[in-house]
Write a structure and sequence with these properties.
With about 250 residues, the protein is an alpha+beta fold. The chain is built from six helices and eleven strands. The strands form two sheets. The chain has an eight-stranded antiparallel beta sheet with strand order 1-2-3-4-7-8-9-10. Strands 5-6-11 form a three-stranded antiparallel beta sheet, with no helix packed on it. β9 and β10 form a beta hairpin.
Length: about 250
């Protein structure tokens, strides 16, 4: 992050468990700004969750489908984002939910407070807005590479999303066994959906390179919008890894 003093809070609403880090911004000088941010952020997060839960209540299959969902112009903005992001990847819309919530909340917070830098982490998926390079450590469960590999996000890539799917860590559904399947896109929900698709393809170490190449090629198609195109991929299983893209990746 930048040279300004860095602050952070945590924010939890039901299944949503977020970490919010920032520096600068219109509220930076207030003594009680962290409390204000937590209160306002909670209200916004609850609103996002209510819009999603309301749609699921009216359309129960939306929660569990593993197939793309048809576009719905009457759906709430967050739901429309999840539908669009997952359609590009041919996965269910909830595969993009963690990144979608992080991005939606991040944009609302940034619009209100105009932070110098802002990072929101939601269940291993991040929305990142920075002005100096940020090295993100990759947690990969019991892998010998866990915490030893990092991806550097450069300011020119920001704002962007970094998502991590795993078949061995956390509650998210995956059909693979990857310890970490990481994708970076300008769009956080698209990164989340692509990471899910990548993780689904990795069951053995021999799958690493073919899966990374397949998702990279799919995520660089000209038919995709710039926000949905993949900028970088990193996949880890046990003591093996594969990576592709323009983002700096190295040891910590």
């Amino acid at each position: 992050m930048g040279k300004d003093r860095f602050f952070s809070i945590t924010l939890s609403v039901e299944q949503s468990d977020l970490w919010i880090g920032w520096n600068g911004g219109s509220g930076a000088g207030k003594e009680d700004f962290a409390s204000e941010l937590q209160s306002w952020g909670r209200s916004e997060l609850e609103g996002l969750r209510e819009s999603l839960e309301g749609y699921i209540s009216d359309h129960p299959p939306f929660l569990t489908t593993l197939e793309s969902w048809n576009e719905d112009p009457f759906a709430p903005p967050l739901v429309q984002t999840l539908i669009r992001s997952s359609q590009n990847v041919h996965v269910g819309p909830m595969a993009a939910v963690a990144g979608g919530v992080a991005e939606a909340l991040g944009k609302r917070l940034d619009e209100k407070y105009h932070f110098r830098e802002l990072v929101i982490e939601n269940g291993g998926d991040l929305w990142i807005s920075i002005r100096s390079p940020l090295r993100v450590s990759v947690y990969a469960g019991l892998s010998s590479l866990s915490g030893k590999i990092g991806i550097t996000i450069m300011p020119e890539h920001s704002p962007c999303g970094l998502a991590c799917s795993s078949g061995t860590v956390g509650p998210s559904k995956s059909f693979g066994k990857a310890d970490a399947a990481v994708v970076v896109c300008k769009s956080a929900p698209s990164a989340d959906a692509w990471a899910t698709a990548l993780g689904n393809r990795i069951r053995y170490s021999s799958d690493l390179l073919p899966a990374v190449n397949e998702i990279w090629n799919a995520g660089r198609q000209e038919t995709l919008g710039d926000d949905d195109k993949i900028m970088g991929i990193l996949a880890i299983l046990a003591d093996r890894m594969a990576a592709v893209g323009t983002l700096p990746i190295g040891g910590l």
